[in-house]
Amino acid sequence: KAGVTQTPRYLIKTRGQQVTLSCSPISGHRSVSWYQQTPGQGLQFLFEYFSETQRNKGNFPGRFSGRQFSNSRSEMNVSTLELGDSALYLCASSSIAGGIGEQFFGPGTRLTVL
Amino acid sequence: AQKVTQAQTEISVVEKEDVTLDCVYETRDTTYYLFWYKQPPSGELVFLIRRNSFDEQNEISGRYSWNFQKSTSSFNFTITASQVVDSAVYFCALSGSGGSNYKLTFGKGTLLTVNP
């Protein structure tokens, strides 16, 4: 069974630009969650999608948005990038919604904002 | 709001020593789930265990064991006879059962270094 894949793996952007990250979950998983990992704040929940519906959202500004497609693939978008958005963005998939099941994580996308 | 505290930021041990990683959680939900994840230097988080709030039985899996105590809101993780391959960041996490708590909340993690 293929694992969770994330593209791209590395990204360098400048302030003010926008970025789209992609996540392909494990086949059959309908839940996709996104997390931001930084040295200062640790792992923080961004949002979860289940069957194309956003189930829950973390405490992030509206510049952070996402969506899920009918094949469960998910994208995350960050508009008007700020230096503080530099982080490792992790995607996780699960067969159960709400973070209560085992989550399978992808390798992450390392975003650097200059 | 739910919260997970891992007071130990870094732990360093010598191979074959036993080590316990502490985790204390806060939640108002009566039904909740606790997890441990491992993040090796390669970066990808790996699931280790899940416990629900109604199951306080301790669990052992090889060299790993977990001690869940609701009375102290703790879910500690012990590695027996540690090995260099155990070196990683370990995260304790909590998910509640409804509303805004229906998501994984992670502790800040404990960096474990096992020296040969």
Shape, principal axes of CA atoms of chain B: globular
**Could you tell me how far the N terminus lies from the C terminus of chain A, measured between alpha carbons in angstroms?**
37 Å
Distance between the termini of chain B: 41 Å
Radius of gyration of chain A: 13 Å
Structural class of chain A: mainly beta
Average pLDDT of chain B works out at 94
Please count the helical segments of chain B.
Answer: 0
Largest interface: A-B, 25 and 22 residues
Q: How many helices of chain A?
A: 0
Q: What structural class do the secondary elements of chain B suggest?
A: mainly beta
Q: Helix amount of chain A, in percent? A: under 10%
Listing every helix as H and every strand as E from the N terminus to the C terminus, the arrangement of chain A reads EEEEEEEEEEE
Q: What attributes does this structure have?
A:
heterodimer; A: 114 residues; mainly beta; 7-stranded mixed sheet; 4-stranded antiparallel sheet; globular; B: 116 residues
Commentary on this structure:
The complex is a heterodimer of chains A (114) and B (116). By secondary structure, chain A is mainly beta. Chain A contains no helices and 11 strands. Chain A starts with a strand and ends with a strand. Chain B is globular and about 45 Å long. In chain B, the strands form 3 sheets. In chain B, strands 2, 5, 6, 10, 11 and 12 form a 6-stranded mixed beta sheet that branches. Chain B has a 4-stranded antiparallel beta sheet with strand order 3-9-8-7, with no helix packed on it. In chain B, β5 (33-39) and β6 form a beta hairpin. The termini of chain B are far apart. Chain B is mainly β. Chain B contains no helices and 12 strands. Chain B has strands at residues 3-5, 10-14, 19-21, 24-26, 33-39, 46-52, 59-61, 64-69, 74-79, 88-95, 104-106, 110-115. Chains A and B meet through β5, β9 and β10 of A and β6, β10 and β11 of B.
